[in-house]
Design brief:
Elements: E1 4-8, H1 24-40, E2 49-54, E3 67-72, E4 78-81, E5 88-92
Parallel strand pairs: 1-5
Antiparallel strand pairs: 2-3, 3-4, 4-5
Length: 108
């Protein structure tokens, strides 16, 4: 069964908007969500994009072969989904973070 992830990227940062030393599982999920933000932060809103980001799920203990599709909505939230397994989520709070490749510096 797919998961639905709701993430605010500011939760992965320290007070100075730096990357703290996170434990392994937290670092891996931050890296995964960060890769989605990097792929989408310079994209036009409301356009669905097939990203280069691979799905991280392991249905049946085997890596999912899907690559994530994503869209940035009018409120700068990134909605993403794996077309192969259905894993999905919403990422907010990414503007002005180290992962923001678009209009960096514009805090949400």
């Amino acid at each position: 069964m797919p998961n639905t992830w709701i993430a605010d990227m500011r939760n992965f940062l320290d007070g100075a908007l730096g990357l703290p030393d996170l434990p392994g599982p937290a670092r891996r999920i931050a890296d995964h969500f960060g890769a989605i933000v990097v792929a989408m932060s310079d994209r036009a809103p409301e356009k669905i994009v097939q990203t280069h980001v691979r799905c991280r799920r392991r249905p049946g203990r085997r890596p999912c072969a899907g690559r994530l599709r994503a869209v940035v909505d009018a409120e700068s939230r990134i909605h993403w989904k794996c077309p192969a397994c259905g894993d999905n989520g919403v990422i907010s709070g990414w503007r002005g973070t180290p992962w923001d490749m678009g209009r960096a510096g514009l805090a949400q």
